[in-house]
């Protein structure tokens, strides 16, 4: 080390010379730099065993997984219960985030800070966006986006806050684009025709060790290619009737579908018009209130992830005739837990 060489080259002396003071300052700088690098790498404030981190939003989703976890140990961190153990042969840590983007963000980062998480998995339910999906289907999207992160303009014109149309960089923002063009804003249906909302999608700003100090803008976050490839090989036997009320069953056999785009936002989506806009504009498969935030945290920390979401209903669509099967029987959480467990079994064999 430079500071050590500096000290050893100096002759013995009484008191503090300028040379010794310079060496001391160099030593302090080296220690601070080493400490910063160590802090950047540290991932296990509570437990350092390599694990798969599993996050769920609803208690019913996590309970099924927790029941089958062996050697459980609970950790209380900032009021949140993290449970470590072995699930289908894999060391895991499981946590319930609670509904919302903010909760998912905070809990996922806590998990990464306190445990040695090698891969992340989100397991839960979601509202359908693609009308081709049915209640009880489980979808593992290839990408996750947050289209409700918007620039809300005063009219339907393209924002031009920083001079040119579409330029909002002076505000520290970036509009989401497709083939170089800003994605269209949502338009309300009125008796007189469609009316612009002025809500234009934005990219999300992300800071990571790889992109510091400038950071980057991204519209969506990619699920791990290896985990997606394994998911495509699975053939889980999904239920048509849930355990809470076996008399309530879906008319179409649920299936696992891998690929496409998932979306998340802070709004509980119960608007058929906006759902149609999301499908036509983004070809979105489903919508929830956690996974894209979870995906951004995973990306920022360099941790591979996948998310399994079971369709509970068609978001904002009372026309989804099988909706009662989810709310009455617990079908959706049963099927997503089934896929998660089958995936973990396959992942263990792969390893």
TrEMBL record:
Q: Give start-end of the signal peptide.
A: 1-39
Q: Which UniProt keywords apply?
A: Signal
The record's listing under SUPFAM superfamilies reads:
Purine and uridine phosphorylases
Q: Is Signal included in the keywords of this UniProt record?
A: yes
Q: Which residues cross the membrane?
A: none
Q: Does the keyword Cytoplasm apply?
A: no
Residues annotated as domain Nucleoside phosphorylase: 51-323
Record CDD domains = MTAN
Top-level taxonomic group: Bacteria
In terms of PANTHER family, this protein maps to:
PHOSPHORYLASE SUPERFAMILY PROTEIN (PTHR21234:SF42), PURINE NUCLEOSIDE PHOSPHORYLASE (PTHR21234)
Q: What is this protein called?
A: Menaquinone via futalosine step 2
